[in-house]
Amino acid sequence: MATIFNDTQMTEFKRLVARYPEGKQKSALLPALHLAQESFGGWLSTESLDYVASLLQIEPIEVYEVATFYSMYNLKPVGKFVFEVCQTGPCMVSGSDNIIDYIKKTLDIKPGETTKDGLFTLKLVECLGACGYAPMMQVGKIYKEHLTKEKVDSIIADYRAQAANN
Amino acid sequence: MGVKLLLDKANVPGIRTYEVYRREGGYRAVEKALKEMTTDAIVEEVKKSGLRGRGGAGFPTGMKWSFIAKPEGVPRHLVCNADESEPGTFKDRYLMEFLPHLLIEGLIISSFALGSNDTYIYIRGEYAWIPDILEEAINEAKAAGWLGKNILGTGFDCNIHVQRGGGAYICGEETALIESLEGKRGNPRIKPPFPAIQGLWMRPTVVNNVETLAAIVPIINMGGDEYAKIGVGKSTGTKLISACGNINNPGVYEIDMTITVEEFIYSDEYCGGIKDGKKLKACIPGGSSVPILPANLLLTTAKGEPRYMNYESLSDGGFATGSMLGSGGFIVLDEDQCIVKNTYTLARFYRHESCGQCSPCREGTGWMEKILQKIETGKGEMSDIDLLWDIQRKIEGNTICPLGDAASWPVAAAIRHFRDEFEWHVKNPELSQTSNFGLQHYADPIHVPA
After folding, report:
1. What is this model's ipTM?
2. How far apart are the CA of A125 and the nearest CA of chain B, in angstroms?
3. For chain B, what is the domain count?
4. Is B275:B246 a contact under the CB 8 Å cutoff?
5. Does the structural domain A7-67 have CATH classification 1.10.10?
6. Of B334, B357, B382, which residue is a domain's last?
7. What is the pLDDT of residues A30-56, one digit of tens each?
8. How far apart are CA B139 and CA B145, in angstroms?
9. CATH for A81-165?
10. Whether the predicted pLDDT of B5 surpasses 60
11. pTM for this one?
12. With 90 as the cut, is the pLDDT of residue A166 above it?
């Protein structure tokens, strides 16, 4: 996948940079990495990181140290749909272990792995701020809450259908 | 029904839009503050209100504002801390998602009072759909003349920008948040200098929590003195509590800090009691960092008095027998929950979120996680319990930022109040894998709903 923003993405990038005072464009780094990840297939290759560095006119190392620090940046390829399941205290006491086991069994993958068809990746994450609606997971920009086995089944079926239609 | 100042309009259909929010009396506080009050008078009202930071530390907001340096020719900034990441806490999310204009209104007044022409909302990256809601509200407010240049003819210019984080609990710490906003790793800074002197881009900066800034609106509308009459002692006004765990009605509640913990848990107006008719075992009343309390010490203080949902009462008895109101993340555990396992997941959380800057936290959180996992999986030894205690003692107070303390307190409190459950795990390596310690001797003083 080409690691160059198209016109729409470049317009968004310029909007991000314009939020900060002159000479403080580095502040746009975190949002720019989110944009790059969304634009370049859900993960950030070294080429993508170098590209963001060149756009912000900062050293590549300044981008690497940020990309490796924050948990939302994927530094290796992921499936089309990433299931980020919360496993912290409040979700755990509400039964997240059972949901995690069920997803592992249903998709036949371990945490950190992607299904053979490239559709699903399972990631175990720490508290996402949805403790009252536990168990839960994030998929892309969306939270899927009050998870049950049945709900997991229908979520997986929906994404499979969505992928088949594209 | 207690007083509601923040969520009183939460159920009005369409309150998320400017039109409805304005019709319901929104932006009156901006009019009042910008047209009738000086910046000093606004700070004075906030001081009088007794408002304390709603992010967890509870520092008086008016005092924090009065510290901001005003060197000639140097821009100042207000930063809204929307990095809500403390396990058990999801109140700011609710405010931003359903009442975005309340936050924007509070931000305009606060920006005016502090002299911030460019104000930033730093929101945790995982709340990925909320920036769109906030930006829409900002655009609506701008179109209506509440933001932009020369607001209400006062000569005051203000823009609000929303920035997403990248997924790091530590960025809720204000200096780490500032670093992150500058496009760096979230490593907390050594204080002093405090952000009020040198914060964002080394300019004077105030960082306030979402709920704190939203509370500015009722304070301006009703006046600081009236606001201070709500609540009790130094716990003035209302507080949002996000309740979760094994209760019938998890969710976000606004309380006026005069109700008892017992009422909060068992009343149908709030948590609605323990789920499936089970018994209450323990509770972490103010977000995962604060000490866990067994049911008896949660409902009554060591002196035998009822415990209330406010700053003073929840911390009555210090850490020996009390806890903290913290961020208001109220996590309830029923009789089936395992304290060792719960503590293990929290220790794992803090290990994952340690920035790695200070050795006691970077190394200590990893050790605590490993030892707790060892005990939880039936491989623990009695000496491990003392080792855990020793490690947490060596982290607490020995780090640049409070994450070290936040990681130590849950472990310390779990051992302090539930040591016999840890010992039971060690003595019963096999049984502990298939059954739970349950309530055991805690059963006696535990409240059983009528």
Report:
1. 0.97
2. 9
3. 3
4. yes
5. yes
6. B334
7. 999 999 999 999 999 999 999 999 999
8. 10
9. 3.40.30.10
10. yes
11. 0.96
12. no
